[in-house]
Amino acid sequence: MQNTRLNTLLEVISGQFDRWLTNPWRKLSVLVITLLLGNFLGTAISTTTGARADWDMISAGFMVIAIELVSRVTYGNQQIARSTFGEIINALKIGVTYSLFVDAMKLGS
Predict the structure, then answer these.
(1) What are the C-alpha distances in Å from 31 to residues 18, 61, 68, 87, 90?
(2) Quick check: 15 and 6 in contact, CB under 8 A?
(3) Which of 5, 33, 58, 76 has its CA 20 to 30 A from that of 65?
């Protein structure tokens, strides 16, 4: 890749973020916050699209496709799965999936 200013800036910011996350407590707190953000995001998407009955199945289909794509990328490449970015994306995916299961249980009872 060309060494442009934007590329250099993104590499520096990424390196600083990775160095900041070397502390295990910071990494754990970022993962927990991402998990809770995924839970909120899944609930917000399903509630917002549930207000209009037209978009329920379409949004559910897109969410399932996005979850499966994240799973394929994360678990298909071990280098990505071990990276901090892979763990953060996986935590977001787990939060969204959990919120969809909780919403299904709420509707079923």
Answers:
(1) 13, 26, 20, 7, 9
(2) no
(3) 33
Angle of helix 56-76 relative to helix 84-108, nearest 10 degrees, comes to 150
Q: What share of the chain is helix, strand, coil (3-state, %, to 5)?
A: 90, 0, 10
| Contact yes or no for 97/71 (Cβ under 8 A) | no
pTM: 0.81
pLDDT one-digit tens code per residue, 15-53: 898 888 888 899 999 999 999 999 999 999 888 887 877
Is the pLDDT reported for residue 1 higher than 70?
no
**SS3 label, residue 18:** helix
Residues contacting 87, CB < 8 A, separation 6+: 27, 31, 81
